[in-house]
Amino acid sequence: MSISKEEIIKKVHELIEAPSCCAEAKEAGNNFLKALGTPDEKSAAQALIKELDEDVTSVDGLIAFAESDNGKAYFGEETAKNLADAAHKAKDAGGKYCICAACAAGGAILDNQAAIL
User: Fold this and answer.
1) The predicted structure's pLDDT at residue 1
2) Which conformational region is residue 94 in: left (phi greater than 0), alpha (psi within -120 to 50 degrees), or beta?
3) What is the rounded CA–CA span in Å between residue 25 and residue 56?
4) What is the pLDDT of residues 56-70, one digit of tens each?
5) Which of 17, 61, 69, 76 sits a CA distance of 20 to 30 A from 84?
6) 51/24 Cα distance (integer angstroms)
Protein backbone atom coordinates (compact mmCIF):
# COMPACT_ATOMS: atom_id res chain seq x y z
CA MET A 1 0.00 0.00 0.00
CA SER A 2 1.61 3.23 -1.09
CA ILE A 3 1.08 6.57 0.57
CA SER A 4 0.61 10.03 -0.91
CA LYS A 5 3.06 12.91 -1.10
CA GLU A 6 1.15 14.64 1.71
CA GLU A 7 1.57 11.55 3.91
CA ILE A 8 5.29 11.44 3.03
CA ILE A 9 5.58 15.07 4.17
CA LYS A 10 3.99 14.04 7.50
CA LYS A 11 6.51 11.20 7.76
CA VAL A 12 9.36 13.67 7.14
CA HIS A 13 8.06 15.76 10.06
CA GLU A 14 7.90 12.60 12.21
CA LEU A 15 11.46 11.75 11.16
CA ILE A 16 12.99 15.08 12.05
CA GLU A 17 11.08 15.28 15.35
CA ALA A 18 12.16 11.79 16.44
CA PRO A 19 14.70 11.79 19.29
CA SER A 20 16.53 8.94 17.53
CA CYS A 21 16.98 10.89 14.28
CA CYS A 22 20.62 11.61 13.48
CA ALA A 23 21.78 15.11 12.56
CA GLU A 24 22.35 14.23 8.89
CA ALA A 25 18.85 12.81 8.37
CA LYS A 26 17.34 15.75 10.26
CA GLU A 27 19.20 18.15 7.94
CA ALA A 28 18.14 16.25 4.81
CA GLY A 29 14.53 16.21 6.02
CA ASN A 30 14.54 19.93 6.77
CA ASN A 31 16.14 20.67 3.40
CA PHE A 32 13.43 18.66 1.67
CA LEU A 33 10.67 20.52 3.52
CA LYS A 34 12.24 23.89 2.64
CA ALA A 35 12.49 22.88 -1.02
CA LEU A 36 8.83 21.88 -1.40
CA GLY A 37 7.28 23.73 -4.32
CA THR A 38 10.63 25.00 -5.60
CA PRO A 39 12.82 23.87 -8.50
CA ASP A 40 15.09 22.20 -5.90
CA GLU A 41 12.38 19.88 -4.60
CA LYS A 42 13.40 16.81 -6.62
CA SER A 43 17.10 17.09 -5.79
CA ALA A 44 16.26 17.59 -2.11
CA ALA A 45 14.02 14.50 -2.23
CA GLN A 46 16.85 12.53 -3.84
CA ALA A 47 19.27 13.69 -1.14
CA LEU A 48 16.78 12.69 1.57
CA ILE A 49 16.35 9.22 0.07
CA LYS A 50 20.12 8.80 -0.22
CA GLU A 51 20.56 9.77 3.43
CA LEU A 52 17.79 7.44 4.58
CA ASP A 53 19.32 4.58 2.57
CA GLU A 54 22.45 5.07 4.67
CA ASP A 55 20.74 5.62 8.03
CA VAL A 56 17.63 3.49 8.34
CA THR A 57 18.42 0.24 10.15
CA SER A 58 16.74 -3.03 9.29
CA VAL A 59 14.88 -4.96 11.95
CA ASP A 60 17.52 -7.67 11.59
CA GLY A 61 20.25 -5.09 12.21
CA LEU A 62 18.46 -3.93 15.35
CA ILE A 63 18.07 -7.50 16.59
CA ALA A 64 21.73 -8.26 15.94
CA PHE A 65 22.86 -5.13 17.78
CA ALA A 66 20.48 -5.51 20.72
CA GLU A 67 21.56 -9.13 21.22
CA SER A 68 25.28 -8.34 20.90
CA ASP A 69 27.68 -7.58 23.73
CA ASN A 70 28.01 -4.03 22.34
CA GLY A 71 24.24 -3.60 22.35
CA LYS A 72 23.98 -4.86 25.90
CA ALA A 73 26.74 -2.47 26.97
CA TYR A 74 25.07 0.43 25.12
CA PHE A 75 21.47 -0.12 26.25
CA GLY A 76 22.02 -2.08 29.44
CA GLU A 77 21.22 -5.78 29.77
CA GLU A 78 17.48 -5.47 30.49
CA THR A 79 16.74 -2.74 27.94
CA ALA A 80 18.68 -4.63 25.26
CA LYS A 81 16.66 -7.80 25.97
CA ASN A 82 13.37 -5.89 25.86
CA LEU A 83 14.40 -4.15 22.65
CA ALA A 84 15.42 -7.43 21.02
CA ASP A 85 12.13 -9.02 22.08
CA ALA A 86 10.14 -6.10 20.63
CA ALA A 87 12.15 -6.23 17.43
CA HIS A 88 11.52 -9.98 17.05
CA LYS A 89 7.79 -9.34 17.49
CA ALA A 90 7.90 -6.56 14.89
CA LYS A 91 9.75 -8.85 12.47
CA ASP A 92 7.25 -11.67 13.06
CA ALA A 93 4.47 -9.18 12.22
CA GLY A 94 6.18 -8.33 8.92
CA GLY A 95 8.26 -5.34 10.03
CA LYS A 96 11.34 -4.58 7.95
CA TYR A 97 12.87 -1.70 9.87
CA CYS A 98 14.18 -0.83 13.29
CA ILE A 99 11.32 0.05 15.62
CA CYS A 100 12.62 3.46 16.73
CA ALA A 101 10.60 6.47 15.62
CA ALA A 102 13.23 7.71 13.17
CA CYS A 103 13.65 4.38 11.39
CA ALA A 104 9.89 3.77 11.33
CA ALA A 105 9.30 7.11 9.60
CA GLY A 106 12.40 6.77 7.43
CA GLY A 107 11.37 3.28 6.35
CA ALA A 108 7.91 4.51 5.35
CA ILE A 109 9.55 7.25 3.27
CA LEU A 110 11.89 4.76 1.60
CA ASP A 111 9.04 2.35 0.85
CA ASN A 112 7.04 5.15 -0.77
CA GLN A 113 9.79 7.28 -2.30
CA ALA A 114 8.10 7.27 -5.71
CA ALA A 115 5.58 9.74 -4.27
CA ILE A 116 8.28 12.42 -3.96
CA LEU A 117 10.68 11.53 -6.80
Assistant:
1) 66
2) left
3) 9
4) 999 999 999 999 999
5) 17
6) 7
